[in-house]
Amino acid sequence: MPAPRRYVTEAIVLSRFDYGEADRILTLITPGGGKIKAIAKGIRRQKSRIGGSLEPFAELRLALAQGRTFEVVTQVEVVHAWLNLRDDLVSFGTASYMAELADGTLEERHAAESVYILLKRAYEILDAGMTPGRVARWFEMHLADELGVRPEVDRCVECGRLLEADERYRWMPPLGGVLCDRCPGPPFERAALSLDALKLLKAYQRQDVEALAALRVRPEVEREVEIAMREFLAYSLDRKPRSLAFLDEVRSNEAARAHAAPRP
Description:
Elements: E1 6-19, E2 23-30, E3 34-40, E4 59-65, E5 71-80, H1 89-105, H2 113-127, H3 132-146, E6 169-172, E7 177-180, E8 191-193, H4 195-206, H5 209-214, H6 219-237, H7 243-260
Helix pairs in contact: 1-2, 1-3, 1-7, 2-3, 3-6, 4-6
């Protein structure tokens, strides 16, 4: 049976760019159709009925019509707006980063329900006020799992031996995880990994978001895990998201303001 010419689907906008005088091209993730391209005609005109609804970081219900090159947006309903995450630049930058990760790892028209659910959940907990860095690490770890590149944090990636608490570890993205101190590994730079960072990596794999939100972790350990996951995804996915530059700049500016603020 041929696909319907018109259909309705939930969707999240991953990216967009202006096209022509008044149109906009959207990259969407949908639970049933995967990643698709759609055009919103006339959306940039002041009288557009859908102009204020087709925004990133919201779950939408779209009516689409099949077109030659792009699907055509004919109607928009906002299901979940997630307005809180837009009010803070770090949360906004984190949402952009996760959208770019999802966009860069999906092929068009391939099933993506699990990634859709993952991104939706990440936006929910980010909007609810969970620390942006922890949302990002949770999303990174579970996205890697969905893509079949889950990092190994329980056993040595070289010898398969269970890692012990009283030894030293090295983080080896090219090998897929943690290398024990007994294995020499290949002849390239090896980065030390602390026991606390290893424990936190395991927590991101195993614990639910409520437990993760309640963890008390030193900032230097959070940063160590952030660097480790960025290195792992950059190697596994062969890309470095452009949105990281914006996110790092925002965080740096906030840290500078906090440091310059007079103490009570």
